[in-house]
Specification:
Layout lengths: L11 H9 L3 H23 L2 H18 L10 H19 L8 H4 L7 H19 L3 H12 L4 H8 L3 H24 L1
Length: about 190
């Protein structure tokens, strides 16, 4: 008779406790669970694939170095990771010099990709991203967490240290600001 082994998934709180005790395998499991989300968050802020990869690695390195100080406060572990990632990305943006180069996505067109459509889509995405980056820090963070990371209001409130009602107000104001920016850009 063939026996199938079922792997029980370790709960996140258990992994976090083991990682706090410097268990590198537990931290590796946490990395596997959250790396895509952290990368996506950073990439949306910096807009560069290789910089996002580097900053993601730095975020997890900082998390590993600080894991012993992590305290469970009711928020998901991902909230703590995203706060580290966000702070790193913002610091990076402040120090980065603007450079003009053709984005990698346009150089590698693939066999069936229409370059004009790809360029237009990238231009539209870049306009939205730039408009989001022009928001005040608090508004930008709420918009990214809500719409890029698809987090619930409660999770966003934990990350930004505000009430759910305050997050809703910040989101409302940010969306109004984005609408105004996009209308002005379209008119100008």
């Amino acid at each position: 008779m063939l026996r199938l082994e079922t792997r029980q998934e370790t709960s996140e709180p258990d992994l976090v406790e083991r990682a706090r005790a410097r268990d590198s395998e537990a931290f590796a499991e946490l990395y596997d669970r959250h790396v895509a989300r952290v990368y996506r968050h950073i990439y949306y802020l910096v807009g560069d694939l290789s910089e996002a990869e580097d900053l993601t690695a730095q975020a997890f390195l900082q998390a590993w170095e600080a894991i012993h100080r992590y305290q469970v406060r009711g928020a998901p572990f991902a909230s703590w990771l995203l706060r580290i990632a966000h702070n790193l990305a913002v610091s990076h943006l402040r120090s980065r010099r603007q450079k003009a180069e053709l984005p990698e996505e346009l150089v590698d067109e693939g066999p069936h990709r229409n370059p004009e459509e790809a360029l237009q889509q990238q231009a539209d995405e870049e306009r939205v991203r730039e408009a989001i980056l022009r928001l005040r820090d608090e508004q930008r963070q709420v918009i990214i967490l809500r719409f890029v990371e698809e987090m619930e209001y409660r999770e966003v409130a934990e990350i930004v240290g505000k009430s759910v009602a305050a997050v809703r107000v910040i989101q409302h104001r940010a969306l109004n600001n984005l609408r105004k920016q996009m209308r002005m850009e379209k008119a100008g």
